[in-house]
Amino acid sequence: MSVSSTASSLTPPPVSAPTQADLLRFVRRVAADAALIASLPLDPEGRTWVRLDGPGGGEAWLIGWPPGTGTGWHDHADSAGAFMTASGVLKEKSLAARLPSDGWRTLELTDGVDRERRLPAGQGRAFGLHHVHEVLNESPDQHAVSVHACHPPLPRIRRYSRSGRVLRLEQVERPEDWR
Fold first, then answer.
1. Number of domain units in the chain
2. Which are the contacts of 158, defined by CB distance < 8 A and separation ≥ 6?
3. Considering the domain boundaries, does residue 12 fall inside one?
4. pLDDT in tens, 66-78
5. Spatial contact of 72 and 82, defined as CB atoms under 8 Å apart
6. Is 92 inside a domain boundary?
7. Residue 10 has what pLDDT?
8. Is residue 4 predicted with pLDDT exceeding 60?
């Protein structure tokens, strides 16, 4: 056996990226960990979070949502993801439309693209690249806790404002902005 064939036979096979189903299984498993969920410090004023090791080298977070808080409209750019409510109830508003990935500042949305989901504890969803949504805790008096995972690790998050049918790109955040 030559040296090059020996070296290549010792190289581990490439690890495949987790699928949306894998991400959803991960957040479901973490959301079922009652001790972990209870360990998250909750702040009455703002969201709290703890970063977790995500599947396949991805990112994950445990997030606490005070009553009346939300993310605002955003997407996860080139990352697929999943999230699951571990306690309380969250609402997800999303767009059932594929938006251009770059090169625009303002879009007029067509009728029928708005979707809403109510996600009580134990309910979640997976999503693909460029999924535009906002997540809200509309409860007037109860915290919610959720688990989120994405792969690959977020290269950026794009934040949007919305007025009726007009969606406007407001800001692009990169990982260095979150540290």
1. 1
2. 74, 75, 77, 169, 171, 172, 173
3. no
4. 999 999 999 988 8
5. no
6. yes
7. 61
8. no
